[in-house]
Amino acid sequence: MTYSVTTAGAPAAQQFDLWESAVSQTFVPLEAAPGERSAFRGRLRGQNLGSVAVYEATADAHTVRRTQRAIAKGNPEVYKLGLQLHGSARLSQDGRQAALDPGDFAIYDTTRPYTLAFDDVSSTLVLMFPRDMLCLPSGHVEQLTATRFSGGSGVSGIVSSILVQLARNLDDPQVYGSVRLARNVVDLLGTALADRVDYSNVPAESSRGALLVKIKSYVETHLNDPALSPTEIAAAHHISTRYLHKLFSDAGVTVSGWIRQRRLERCGQDLADPSKQQLAIGAIGARWGLVDASYLSRAFKTEYGLSPSEYRQRSATHRSD
């Protein structure tokens, strides 16, 4: 069930206090300061998808700070991702500042101080998840806090588009697979971050994990190539195919199985996307490297229990309810 809280209806003098309490209880303890308006409009809605909290926050101008005092009140050791849906934001942490416009996102670590400033009415999608869910060492992530990731292209563009769709369907997360989708979004975020990590100082003990994340990032950006193969992937990363298979095997998956899963998930997202309702199912499959329509139908039904057309119809039905 979607959780929702709004300042509407509360006395003007109490509206901002209500907002500060809501965001502190929903996420982590925070200190906040309002803008210049005497009244404050704010709405927070969302839900927990397994270990991942997914919320949309829409509010007037204000600033929130994760201070050392707030950290002392509660420190659950989680990462947060903020994606701007409307308006702009400025995120500061670890000596960096990221200016975020619609479609952009950034990651921040709740175990250290940070500041988020919204100069006008804005809407932000926030993901919060345990730090150990991200498949990158914390030292690598620390290089990238308060760094702007553009929603325009590459893996970060894929992450952004999925999050925008998720925001549009917060009241019906089952359309996108609920807990499984949340896990996949965090995995995708890991690949986007991996592209920006400086690997020159990667410790030897974490090099295998870092390489796997980098390989997954490569795969993610080449899903549309039907000829994508373990041989090509290994060659692109200057390793043997045997070592490539071992990397994935140690992670509990096969190379081909992981590629197939990601392609089917991308097809599922397109099938559930109302802006792509005019695309033929075969065209959606070909868009993600599955050019054989009969194979797509069989594999999709095995994975989701529904044919692609049934999945699309169910998604449309959920949106109209």
Automatic annotation (TrEMBL):
PROSITE patterns: HTH_ARAC_FAMILY_2. Keywords: DNA-binding, Transcription, Transcription regulation. The keyword Zinc does not apply. One of its GO terms (molecular function) is DNA-binding transcription factor activity. InterPro entries: AraC-bd_2, AraC_XylS_family_regulators, Homeodomain-like_sf, HTH_AraC. Pfam families: AraC_binding_2, HTH_18. It comes from the Bacteria. SUPFAM superfamilies: Homeodomain-like. Residues 213-314 form the HTH araC/xylS-type domain. PANTHER family: ARAC SUBFAMILY, HTH-TYPE TRANSCRIPTIONAL ACTIVATOR RHAS-RELATED. This is AraC-like DNA-binding protein.
